[in-house]
Amino acid sequence: MSEQQPQEPETVSGQPCTFCNTNNLTLMQHKVEVPYFGNVLVFSMTCSECKYHKSDVEALEHKDPVKYTLEISTPEDLKIRIVRSSEAEIKIPHMITITPGEGANGYVTNVEGILNRVKHVIEQTRENEEDEEAKDKAKNMLKKLQKVIWGQEKLTMILEDPTGNSAIVSEKAVIVKMKGKKENKTEE
């Protein structure tokens, strides 16, 4: 069995940017094989003039709407691979929901990367908050995140994607196929 060579990203420069109307947009796409998930296309657009940036991931094989649930219980779980499309919603119950908006980006990261993003959002919210009770709540969430990173507490992470272009790549993840609002549990 031969090892697949990494594919060089395809890049096209000098494209028109719809935001600043200059020809400074660079388009890039790259095919990547994600173990246990399959081939994905990672693509991005970046304007060197106005700094607009958009990225996403898309499965090259057809995927059904899906929900992944992962219990993070050890520091080793922080290394679990996450593929998140721009359509996916990430939930950490009783803490935060990351809902995709029009400018949402897709990315490939790991659990620790998601927790760092959550930590950053909570820190920003705390800094901008004037209510002391809300600041204390944010402080407690940050403490809990740190304890999860140290393996002292457990945390549940849920990833839902109506396009099926996202995944939590781990045998620990519980996978549920979604059909609209109805969910059907699958054994995978």
Any idea what the radius of gyration is? Answer: 19 Å
| Number of helical segments with 4 or more residues | 2
One letter per element, helices H and strands E, the order comes to EEEEEEEEEHHEEEE
How widely separated are the two ends? 25 Å
User: For the record, what is the CATH homologous superfamily label of the largest domain?
Assistant: ZPR1, A/B domain
Task: Determine the fraction of residues in helical runs and give it as a percent range.
Answer: 10-25%
CATH class designation of the largest domain: Mainly Beta
CATH topology of the largest domain: Jelly Rolls
Number of strand elements: 13
**Order of strands in the sheet with the most strands?**
8-7-10-5-12-13
Largest sheet: 6 strands, antiparallel
What shape does the CA trace take?
A: globular
Q: What share of the residues does DSSP label as strand, in percent?
A: 35-45%
CATH architecture of the largest domain, by name, is Sandwich
**What is the typical, i.e. mean, pLDDT?**
87
Model regions low in confidence, pLDDT < 50 over at least 5 residues = 181-188
Q: Total domains, how many? A: 2
What structural class is derived from the secondary structure elements?
alpha+beta
The multimeric state of the shown protein is: single chain
Explained architecture:
This protein has 188 residues and is an alpha+beta fold. The protein has two domains: 61 residues, N-terminal domain of TfIIb (Single Sheet); 127 residues, Jelly Rolls. The protein contains two helices and 13 strands. A six-stranded antiparallel β-sheet has the order 8-7-10-5-12-13, with no helix packed on it. Helix 1 packs antiparallel against helix 2. The longest helix has 18 residues.
